[in-house]
Amino acid sequence: MAKAKNNTVFFCRECGYESSKWLGQCPACREWNTFVEEPAASDKRPSKAAGVRTLGRGSVPVHITDISLEDQDRTATGFEELDRVLGNGIVKGSLVLVGGDPGIGKSTILLQVCRNLSGSGKKVLYISGEESLKQIKMRANRIGPITGELLFLCETDLDLIAEAIESAGPDMVVIDSIQTMHRDDISSAPGSVSQVRESTNTLMQLAKGNGAAIFIVGHVTKEGVVAGPRVLEHMVDTVLYFEGDRQDSYRILRAVKNRFGSTNEIGVFEMLESGLSEVKNPSEMLISGRPKEASGAVVACSLEGTRPILLEVQALVTATNFGMARRTANGVDYNRINILLAILEKRCGFAMSRYDAYVNIAGGMKMNEPALDLAVVMALISSFKNREVDPGMLIFGEVGLSGEVRAVSQAPQRVAEAVKMGFTTCVLPKSNLIKLKEETRIRLLGVENVREAIGLI
User: Fold this and answer.
1) How many domains in the chain?
2) Residue pLDDT, tens place only, 400-435
3) Range of the structural domain that residue 219 is part of
4) Contact 97, 233 (CB under 8 A)
5) CB–CB of 163/151 below 8 Å?
């Protein structure tokens, strides 16, 4: 008697590549040890309740001039910070993935958005697979009174959820979370690769077919990425990540993918007892509490999306007690710090290999923009020489391997932010001065290389 064939397949967690056998390296994305075993998809056709819409005979292609765009296609969330990250509001029929560490505030901000939309006359459906109705009400009482048509449902069966969305016809739907949802025609457990992928595909069809904006909450792994296959991020329209320490009151919402707006746009929020409150001036928050008459502290300007943000770069340089100098970077790229230290030693003659170097960005921000290079160099030299940098000075610029200071993008916006925050001097690349000839509100010091910048302190 022939042995029955094992009805399982292997999926790559990163890209969703499917294979009939386990592979050490994925041939599609070239990642190692990412294959997991899952039951094969059932041949059973999905039910009508699954909400999957196929292209019928009545669907015909249309010309781009026949497609109309109206202001009603975007809806304000009640948070200016969130609207900026989304690209000026919620787009009708969009599918948005919200990820973040447990307890960071994902469910809280979505519930606040639901309250704001229902209060403005929109119909909202909040579906939870992790909390009971009483638990949701306890959290709702903390953020304030709820008015309007805000409906709650505790369910994990996606077929029943699709029926509820079809019958209710809401303007916005929240799924909390995608890892708890399942479909009966897929035999694997909730949270598996197959379930997450098929559940997201069903929700995408619902969003595009019914015109409802759907927000799905995704758990994250220990590496900080959304659990499940990476193809999940490719399927949705927008991917938002909550960043920050749970012990800190400030949260940063960052868009890493957005089909309707700028990527890498950020919104800053503060966690209060009544929920999340937006911080409309993050520059003031990040540079508040600066130490006075202290070396190694420099104010820089970084550009996040379309917003210039001022932040404090701190550095501490001390003589090493061991044969090998220690380097530590918090909020900036560790490898970039090593490059800048090598530039200081090779091009400027500072024996940085004999000293430990610690670099930190105050406020818990994480920045990888090259425009911070000059500020990091100035902070390191300030600590190395134990000389204070003028507290009214703002510094930005990219540093090349030859020690030259290269131009950065959108310098006028950075200078305008410095003027707004009351700075009197700005050190910037000399090549950026061309677009700032008419700027008289602040003293501009253009530098061509690192040596000139160091000479200022």
Assistant:
1) 3
2) 999 999 999 999 999 999 999 999 999 999 999 988
3) 73-280
4) yes
5) no
